[in-house]
Structure formats: C-alpha cells, structure tokens
Task: structure prediction
Amino acid sequence: MVNDLIPWVDANYRTLADQAHRAMAGLSMGGMQSATVTMANLDKFSYIGLFSGGAATGMAGRGPGRGAAPGAPVPVPAAPVTPPPFDIKTIYNGQMADPAEFNRKVRVLFMSFGTDPPLENPEGLKRHQEQLIKAGITNSYVYISPGTTHEWQTWRRSLYTFSQLLFR
Result:
C-alpha cells in the first residue's frame, strides 16, 4: 500500500500527494485492514473510515472463526461479548497514546455499523466513541445505519456520510 500503490496513484493521477489530502476507508475486513494500514502510517493519512469493521468495539467472537468454510453459519453468542478493557495507550497499536498528537494528525476517524444483528454492534460502537472522547480523541465520528446489518446498504450509507467529512 505505502511503498507501491500510493506512489503509483500519485504518479498516474492528479493528486495532492500529502498526508493532509489522503484518506483510506474499508468495509468489514477491509475496515480492519484500513485501521491497520492507517494507524501504522499516520504520517500518510489524515482521514480514516472504518465501515462495519476496524473499530475496537468488543466484536471478538461474533463472526466466523479462522478457517471457517465460506457460507458456514455464523455463531452468535448467547450473551453479548464483553469487550476488553479500553486502554488508550495500547488501542490501535498505541497510536492514540498521545491524544493531542493523534488529533493533530488525523482530521476524521469515522466509524459505522448497521443496527441489526447478528454481526453489527452499534451499542459497542457508541461506547467506543464515548471512550475515545473521554480519553481526549476529539475527531471521531459515528454513523449508525438504521434497519441494516452487515450489508451493502450499510456501506453505501456509510460512504455517503464519510465522503461529506473529507478534505474540508
């Protein structure tokens, strides 16, 4: 991404090739990948979009396990999964340990989910944002897509909302 794709895009398209004008977003597992890439490269990204994935909201154990067969039923726990304790110093590989520095680098941290089970966790996402705000992260935005689950309609709405926050 950083060594090959971004330089190629900047060489072949008319871009503003700096951190202040670069965004990355992904949906589901792509949201996790977006969180991984952007948090490790905050010098290259200032807008981060995590659509139904990538947000540390206590979703562990709610999706198919490693090696699950495609189309296999998704196990749904009988009780909500308790998220691990929130620690600003370790979450997202410690990139938020200094909230003022994170706020300076990242203009928008956008997270979204649908409202419907089994894979979406809007309450966990709201709790996560409250924890971020309490810790001093002031640039997080949450969008909850009403009446949708882990599906394209959730992500279309998320992209529409996220795109209006970009490059202001």
In short: The helical segments are 5-12, 29-40, 99-105, 122-135, 152-163. Residues 58-70 have pLDDT under 50 and may be disordered.
